[in-house]
């Protein structure tokens, strides 16, 4: 009986470890046309299991390191970058479950919120919005997100 219990326990452990190693695979995503001269020291998106982790993104004009003047245009550009990044994992905005919005000035909340809301239907992800002292390159907004990629649906 003890021998059988050990076999069952060993098989259970092997199956558990196999499942853990299968879900602990980490995949890094970087858009193909990411500027090499930027030498980013982070991954724009990582998939671990079915979870997507998107780094904070600022609203650069496409293909440049320049920022538009308005928070509205920067917000639109952030979402264009988020959508492009999600597409690398065959995902879209509907896969987002949480976003964190960093604003350089909370007085821009209403303008940001109006544009933000235009990207989501009746089921937006959870969101936290905070004011920060400064953002990279003098950006007015940065957004980071978490997503879920359910490959069974």
UniProtKB/TrEMBL annotation:
Extract one GO molecular function annotation from the record. hydrolase activity
Q: What is the main EC category here?
A: hydrolase
The signal sequence is 1-24
Tell me one Pfam family matched here: Ribonuc_L-PSP
| E.C. code | 3.5.-.-
Q: What superkingdom does the record give?
A: Bacteria
For whether the record's keyword set contains Chloroplast, the answer is: no
Keyword terms of this UniProt record: Hydrolase, Signal
Keyword Magnesium appears in the UniProt entry: no
InterPro entries according to UniProt: RutC-like_sf, YjgF/YER057c/UK114
Q: Which family does it belong to?
A: Belongs to the RutC family.
* PANTHER family on file: 2-IMINOBUTANOATE/2-IMINOPROPANOATE DEAMINASE RIDA, PROTEIN HMF1-RELATED
Stated name of the protein = RidA family protein
Please tell me the species this chain comes from: Hirschia litorea
């Amino acid at each position: 009986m003890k021998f059988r219990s050990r076999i069952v326990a060993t098989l259970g452990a092997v199956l558990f470890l196999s499942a853990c190693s299968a879900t602990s695979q980490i995949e890094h995503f970087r858009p193909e046309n990411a500027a090499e001269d930027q030498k980013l020291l982070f991954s724009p998106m990582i998939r671990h299991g079915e979870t997507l982790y998107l780094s904070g993104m600022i609203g650069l004009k496409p293909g440049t390191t320049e920022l538009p003047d308005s928070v509205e245009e920067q917000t639109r550009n952030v979402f264009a970058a988020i959508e492009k990044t999600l597409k690398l994992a065959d995902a879209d905005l509907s896969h987002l479950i949480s976003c964190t919005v960093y604003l350089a000035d909370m007085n821009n909340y209403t303008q940001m919120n109006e544009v933000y809301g235009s990207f989501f239907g009746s089921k937006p992800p959870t969101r936290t919005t905070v004011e920060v002292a400064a953002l990279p390159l003098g950006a007015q907004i940065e957004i980071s997100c978490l997503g879920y990629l359910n490959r069974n649906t």
